[in-house]
Amino acid sequence: MENYKVKLAKELANIITDITEEEIEELIEVPTNKEMGDFAFPCFRFAKILKKAPPLIASELKEKIKKPDFIEKIENVNAYINFYLDKTTLAKDILDIVLAQKEHYGLAQTHDKGNITIDYSSPNIAKPFHVGHLRSTVIGNSLYRIFEAIGYNCIGINHLGDWGTQFGKLIVAYKKYSTKEAVEQKGIQELLRIYVKFHDEAKNDPALEDLARENFKKMEQGDEEALALWKWFKDISLKEFERVYKILDISFDSFNGEAFYNDKMDKVIQELDNKNLTTISEGAKIVELENMSPCLITKKDGSTLYATRDITAALYRKNTYDFKKNIYVTALAQNLHFAQLFTVIEKMGYSWAKDLVHVPFGMVSMETGSISTRSGNVLLLEDILNEAINKTKEIIEEKNPTLENKEQVAQEVGIGAIIFDDMYNSIIKDIQFSWEKVLNFDGETGPYVQYTYARANSVLRKSGINIDDIKDIDINLIIDEQSINLIKQIGLFSETINEAAEKYEPSIIARYAVNIAKCFNKFYHDNSILVDDNELKKARLALVISTMYTIKNALWLLGIKSPKQM
Ligand code: ARG
Questions:
Q1: Distance of CA 169 to CAs 123, 208, 482, Å?
Q2: Looking at residue 441, what is its pLDDT?
Q3: How far apart (Å, rounded) are the C-alpha atoms in residues 340 and 288?
Q4: Is 127 assigned a catalytic role?
């Protein structure tokens, strides 16, 4: 639709000379009320220059406009001039593109706009993967696809939390409270248990903390025994994380986590020193920042911190990928950390500090009693995902017991429901998780959109017509109100993706997917598709398949599959 706005601005520039074509384009509005046309041009702006009342200006201006072909009618209401697009032109323009691009509709085929690194998921080793990390994982994955769709080459980085004082604690805890067998058998659950126990014990025995620091120090100095234990904990954790990524069907281009920067930090600390950015405060090395608490670089004992590794990682990523943007997807709680990180990079004199982006998201809370967990108190992501799949299976069993590949469909729908729920609202908002809301096939949910796709596919299947034969459509057969509404929505796909990228906001795609589904269902309700008239059937089927391409790609951008039947 954006291109019509540009064309309209060009037309208006012929008769309006007080402002530039770009300014005209900026002024053109898209009325929320469809009755007011597709575009509206407000004339308030000219009152001062022309010394006339805006409604009069609008009516005089309207008379001067020579109606271009892509406009059906022009009306003047108060201080506005309303433009109605010509339905046939619009429908033809949009369907021509969709039917030519087919399954690629909306998605860039080349990725030559440059690199974007996206740091997402990034769970901490030896801790369970929780719902917060799920949000980071699915939002990051969606941003990855959104930026690829507009022509960037993305690099997905899992910045594993696999380094830091906590591993010193874990080594001490393991030696004191656990055994090889217990860790091998129970995995992360056991590591979590002893980690919690360490904290309980350390309250009464501060010497434990010293011991932990010593052990982390050993790791940083390359002590073999400490590193072997660390690596073992890491392997166990990764195996569990991989299971979750597999269920979600999400992958990464790099697993360079915090430990990867261990041997790269000295140089960076040196650089900070050389640039006179560091000071010593109570034995610790810090970078003082204006309007913010200082950024800690090393502790009293010389060991490094989360921020030290992130500064190093940012430099490494710039050198390795020469990114256009480097995006971090984490909970809102890390705002200060990223503000500090970005400011330090700026103070180091790197102009690309402006290309560092933090995309923060809100918290997920669970309705009490909505989920059972293995451990009793921590919510395990894997349990939630499996429960989603099981609950979906029950629904399918009830609604469509003869469905083929029930298992796979239940997985795609159950997981899709959770992912969709995570991104349906602006991501900065907290979400309250509820099974009823998430798995509602009639609400504004993932299953509702998937169901619409399956319904469209079923019509297509029943028609017995081959997709490739749906061409040379008589556009005039599909310019009724519901068809045109649907076509307009479909035509908005590219600009919707652009907007989602610009705002780092997958929810824009999620809302769009629901809109398309709603428009399709209205169209489907008002129009029989499998009619005897072959030309009419073909024209309506063209809309059915255009809807399918659009929904499938919109869901794909969110990381959600589109089962053909459900
Ligand atoms: N591991 C961190 C956490 O779980 C998230 C890391 C985010 N990425 C980064 N480069 N700091 O909170």
A1: 18, 8, 63
A2: 82
A3: 10
A4: yes
What is the C-alpha separation between 126 and 192, in angstroms, rounded? 7
Q: Which two tokens stand for residue 100?
A: 């030519």
d(CA 67, CA 86): 11
Judge contact between 439 and 447, C-beta under 8 A: yes
Q: Which one, of 290, 380, 389, lies nearest residue 344 by Cα?
A: 290
Here the tokens at position 99 are 């039917």
Strands 295-298 and 356-361: unpaired
361 Cβ contact partners less than 8 Å away, ≥ 6 residues apart: 135, 136, 139, 329, 330, 331, 332, 427, 428
Is 64 catalytic? The answer is no
Name the region of 531 (left: φ>0; alpha: ψ -120 to 50; beta: rest): beta
Catalytic option among 5, 87, 133, 552 = 133
Mean pLDDT across the stretch 335-356? 98
Select which of 130, 197, 218, 337 is catalytic. Answer: 130
Mean pLDDT of 405-420: 95
Pocket test for ligand 1, best of 117, 120, 122 (most atoms within 8 A of CB): 122
Asked if residues 372 and 366 have their Cβ atoms less than 8 Å apart, the reply is: no
Least confident span in 32-36, 475-479, 545-549: 32-36
C-beta of residue 562 within 8 angstroms of C-beta of residue 450:
yes
- The verdict on whether 130 is a catalytic residue reads yes
Residue 427 CA to residue 267 CA, distance in Å, equals 37
* Residues paired with 388 in a beta bridge: none
Distance (Å) from CA 372 to ligand 1 centroid: 27
Main-chain dihedrals φ then ψ at residue 517, nearest 5 degrees: -60, -45
Mean pLDDT of 166-190: 94
pLDDT for position 368: 58
Reading the block at residue 546, the tokens are 């255009």
Cα 86 to the center of its chain, rounded Å: 35
Residue nearest to atom 1 of ligand 1 (CA): 161
pTM over 0.85: yes
Tell me which H or E stretch contains 117.
strand 115-119
In the predicted structure, residue 19 carries a pLDDT above the cut 60: yes
Model pLDDT for residues 251-292, shown as the tens digit of each residue: 999 999 999 999 999 999 999 999 999 999 999 999 999 999
Burial of residue 565 (number of CB atoms within 10 Å: 0-12, 13-18, 19+): middle
- pLDDT of amino acid 374: 40
Q: Which atom belonging to ligand 1 lies closest to the Cα atom of 337? A: 11
CB atoms within 10 A of CB 352: 16
Helix (H, G, I), strand (E, B) or coil at 224: helix
The pick from 312, 330, 358, 381 for probing ligand 1's pocket by mutation, whose C-beta has the most ligand atoms within 8 angstroms, reads 330
Inform me whether the pLDDT recorded for 463 exceeds 60.
Answer: yes
Nearest CA residue ID for atom 9, ligand 1: 159
User: What are the tens digits of pLDDT across the range 423-436?
Assistant: 999 999 998 888 88
